[in-house]
Amino acid sequence: MNTLVTNIRQLVTPLGTEPTPGKRMKELSIREDVHLLLRGDRVVAVSDERPAIDVEAVIDAAGGVVIPGLIDPFLWAAGPSSPTPPESAHPDPPDVPRGEPLDRSMVSAFAQAVRHGTTTAEVRMLAGAGWQRIEETLACVELAARQSSVRVAACVLGAPARTLNGSSDDRISTLIGETIPGIQRHRLASSCAALCGEGGYSRKEAKAVLRAARGAGLDVKVQSSGAGADAILLAAELEAATVDDLVRCSRPELDRLQRAGVIPILLPGDPFLSDHPWAEARRMLEAGLAVALGSAAHASGAGILSMATVLSLAVRKMGLDLAEALTAVTLNAAGALGLARVLGTIEPGKQADFLVLDLDDHRRIADFVVGLPVRHVIIGGRVACTP
Known about the structure:
Blueprint lengths: L1 E12 L15 E11 L2 E6 L9 E12 L1 E7 L25 H14 L2 E9 L4 H18 L2 E8 L9 H19 L4 E7 L5 H13 L3 E7 L3 H10 L3 E3 L6 H10 L2 E4 L2 H5 L7 H6 L5 E2 L3 E2 L8 H11 L4 H7 L2 H6 L17 E4 L16 E6 L2 E4 L2
Parallel strand pairs: 1-4, 5-6, 5-13, 6-7, 7-8, 8-9, 9-10, 10-11, 11-12
Antiparallel strand pairs: 1-2, 2-3, 4-14, 14-15, 15-16
C-alpha cells in the first residue's frame, strides 16, 4: 500500500545507518515543505514535489514538523514474582502494583509511551528467576506491545540477588549453565547485560557472564554500578554494545570506550527523580562517543515513560543541544539496540516510524518538558496513535 504524508512544514532527521559520534551528533537534515512517500512499512522517498503516483492513504501533517520515532533503549520489565533487583542497580524497577494484572499495567504503560512518541523500546528483565520466568514476563511484554503497536526488543540482566542463600559463584553458575542456554534455545532475548561494580558482579564475574552470553549469540552490554571504573574497563575490553548509567568518567576512560565503539546510554530520569548526580554528557561528546538516552522507567507505569521528557531533560540538565539530544533518542538509540540500519532516521529503505508534531519549527521541541504536541505516531507506516 502506498501512503503519502503531505503538508509537512519541516522534516527533521539524522542521517545514516551507523550511530553518530561526538560533534557529528549536531548534524541534522532539515527539509521544508516536503512530501513523504511510504510503501507498506518502509520509507520510499522524501520529495519537494508531490509524487505522481497513486496512493491508497494520505496523512495530513497540517503544516507540522515530522521527526523520527523516539527509541527507548532502557525500559525495565519484571514479572509479578521476579526477584527484587540489587539496591545498586538504580533506579530500581518497582514491583507491579498489588492486585493489578501485569499485562494490564503494561498495556497502559506502553500506550502512554507511544502517546508521547516512543515507537521502539528495549525491555530489560532480571535473569535471576531463570529462563522460564523470563519467558512468562516476555509473553506479557509482547502481548502489551502488540496492543499499543510499539516495537520491543528484550535484554536480560545478570545481577546478584538480594538473598542470604547461595554464593555468588552458585548464582553465576546457574546463570551461565542454565539460564543463558535456555534463553538461547527459546530465543527469548537479543542481548544480555551484566551489572558490574559496587553491589553488582566483580569485573571477573561479569566478564564470565557476558562471555557465555556472547557465545550464545547475544549482544553484550554492561550496566554500571557505583563508581563505574570496572564497568568501563569491562565494556571496553569486550567491545560491548553499550555501557549504561555512567555519571562521571576520566578522559582516559572515555577514550577507552571511544576506541572500543561502546555507546553510553545516559538516564536523565534517574537524577531527576532522585539525588543522583547528572551525567557529564558534554565531556562524552567531546571524547567522540556516540551517546544515547534511555528512560529507565518501568513497564508497569512507574518513572518517566516519555522519551520526549528525557530529551528535554538532557538539554536542560546534561548540556546537550537539541540536535544532539534528538540524535541520542533516535539514531544512536537505534544503534544501542543494533538496529541503526533499519530504524532511527527517516530515509528511503528504513522502517516508516515517525512522529507528526503540531509545531511549525523543530527548535521548539525541547521547550516541552511535559506534553510534546504529538499529532500522529506512525509505526511501520500505520497510524498507531493520534493523541
